[in-house]
Design brief:
Blueprint: H1 4-15, H2 20-29, H3 41-59, E1 77-81, H4 90-106, E2 112-116, H5 122-128, H6 144-161, H7 163-172, H8 178-188, H9 192-204, H10 212-221, H11 226-235, H12 243-252, H13 259-266, H14 270-277
Parallel strand pairs: 1-2
Helix pairs in contact: 1-3, 2-3, 3-4, 4-5, 6-7, 6-9, 8-10, 9-10, 13-14
Amino acid sequence: MVRFAVTLASQIATVIPETVQFIEAALKRQPGLLKPGTLSLKFELENLVFKPFKAAVDSSSPLSSPPKRPSPTPLPFLIVIDGLDECEDKEGMETFIDSMLEFFEANPTIPLRFFITTRIEQHIQDRLEVPEVILDNLDRHGSEPDIEMFVEAEFQREAKRNRVIRAYIQQHGNWPTAVHRHQLIGHIKGSFIFASTLLKYVLWNKGDGLTPMDRLPLALEMNPGLDGLYMQTLARVEHLPHFMDIISTITLSDDSYSISSLAQLLRIKTFEVLHVLVDLQSIIQPLFEEYCQ
């Protein structure tokens, strides 16, 4: 979490201009704050995030506002941190949570809230199980109605722009049928990620010689685990020349490559790269989207 405090401060300054002067003052007092990782994360959070926000709130209160001063930025504010568990710096994660809780303990009425999403990790849960934190386990909330709406909307959208689907519906009636939709929702088992990946395979996969109507029954046979879906998708092209080199490079590289730069790196033709990737659009996007239409 080397740049975590700096990133938060930058975003707060953009949304809440009243904090800028206090962040700048902190940077002048402590030039080391400009070099993430030089000072402790606790110190960075206090001086770049929490103290500037509190100072901005205090200076914006009606009691301290000079006459005819423009109204301050509306409060309260919400900071969203998505996927906290994905941070590999466990110690930094714990420092952030501890610093945040200390700040709210000292300032219980401050108009600031953090909305944090995370998988259940013991070192996170242990620190968040305090009265000041509202915990909500999303596993208790069924996502099936939302997934049904998402699936229905995607099928309707594709039917409007896909002539093959429209022709099939004109001849055979509604597609997918109510039975197929029910089977598909049951197969997805509440996973939006799997739903999205599955629909990409059914509706937008091209080059396999199949229509969406052909692919739907195949999708219902796929392993609902994402690993299984990826393996089945990759298996369809693993026999192609340069498959292993291309997939290994994409998987292991820290950089994003275009088709042409990937071909240049591997010293093969652009069309050979495209030949492998064109049938992998359902799982490799959006890096190659512009080339795989």
